[in-house]
Amino acid sequence: MKPQLTITKAGQGHGQAMRTALTMAALSGRTVKLTGIKDDRARPRPGLGPAGRTLLVALGIITGGSCQARGGDLEATFTPGLVRPGSYQFDVSREEPLCSPLSTVITPLILPLATCRENSSVLVSGATHMLGAPTTDELTRVILPMLQRLGVPVRLSEIAPGFFPQGGGEAELTVEPAGILEALKAEHSFQPHRIGAEVVISGLPRHLADQVLDGVVDRLGLFGLKPETSTRRAQGSTGMALLVWASSGRSWAGFSALGRPGGRPESLAIEASEAMLTFLNSGAGMQAEVAAQALPTLACAQGISHISVDRLTPGLKATARVIETFWPDTVRIDTPIQGGPSQVRVMGRRWGRLS
């Protein structure tokens, strides 16, 4: 039996350390003990929180394993079994009737389910658009295309949007069996082949979305960028969200802004557009938030990946630290003394066979 691993500061990176640890445990079959847990609300508090508890239950069911939380949910132990394909359904709000992000339940399940020999589907209920977690638009436009590029056959369909604080959204994840995953070379400056802006709006007048998109077109146009624009009207809780996205052929980037009661539509355009422009001017090949989601897949790939990132975010550092705990000498991060993008090297372990 493989020895148990302990991940301290599991709340690091807005819970990214815990989510990565649970994914790695399911992939490696190793028991993991998590300490220092924090939830994934916009203002994190000690303890698992509804999304964290839902994720533990979900992985326990999918792997036929066991999970135990103790100390007021400040610590948890997960012992995985064998990952089993199937059709699953999980409701974040069942744990606690508050708005919690469903993306933090979805993303850790992708790689374990991709190891199965049959297709799987997962229906998750919760918030699709809230601060502190990837929106479903970021998943479908940015993160999942990146995983597909690496060889993970995965799709996501948003059934209904759920905006903070009402929640009430639904999304369905479909994962097919994956073979050999590809390494990635994205160390040079991100050069967008396509750039776009998409607004999702529910229960609000259409002209608000038009104002947001006009603001994005005007702001990006000052720098010679001509974004594709689209509006997606949906039926769910009331709200509006903007995603400014870009693809380079090697990687994807995306920045979201969420509408607030009484807020001006133009402020969404400025927030997301400025974030994109800052990234494009950084000289990095990949957005740090996207890299944090891609690292576990790159660690399971065949070959060595080289990427550069615009920032060393807590989530990226947490992901690298956890992967190193499971598979030492897998991830190396080098930061230039004179500034500039940090370089990330990932030694692929072919689903852990080379660990």
Q: Topology of this protein?
A:
Elements: E1 5-7, H1 16-28, E2 32-34, H2 49-63, E3 66-70, E4 75-79, E5 87-91, H3 92-95, H4 103-114, E6 120-126, H5 136-150, E7 154-160, E8 169-175, E9 185-186, E10 194-202, H6 206-221, E11 228-233, E12 239-247, E13 252-258, H7 265-280, H8 288-299, E14 304-309, H9 314-326, E15 331-334, E16 342-347
Parallel strand pairs: 1-2, 5-6, 9-14, 10-11
Antiparallel strand pairs: 2-4, 3-4, 6-8, 7-8, 10-12, 12-13, 14-16, 15-16
What does this entry look like structurally?
- The structure is a single chain.
- By secondary structure, the protein is α/β, with parallel strands linked by helices.
- It has 2 domains: 5-185 and 286-347, UDP-n-acetylglucosamine1-carboxyvinyl-transferase, Chain; 190-280, RNA 3'-terminal phosphate cyclase, insert domain (Dihydrodipicolinate Reductase, domain 2, 2-Layer Sandwich), CATH 3.30.360.
- It is 33% helix and 26% strand.
- It contains 9 helices and 16 strands.
- The protein has helices spanning 16-28, 49-63, 92-95, 103-114, 136-150, 206-221, 265-280, 288-299, 314-326; strands at residues 5-7, 32-34, 66-70, 75-79, 87-91, 120-126, 154-160, 169-175, 185-186, 194-202, 228-233, 239-247, 252-258, 304-309, 331-334, 342-347.
- The strands form 4 sheets. Strands 1-2-4-3 form a 4-stranded mixed beta sheet, covered by helices on one side. The chain has a 4-stranded mixed beta sheet with strand order 5-6-8-7.
- α1 (16-28) packs parallel to α4, α2 packs parallel to α4 and α6 packs parallel to α7.
- The two termini are 16 Å apart.
- The mean pLDDT is 93.
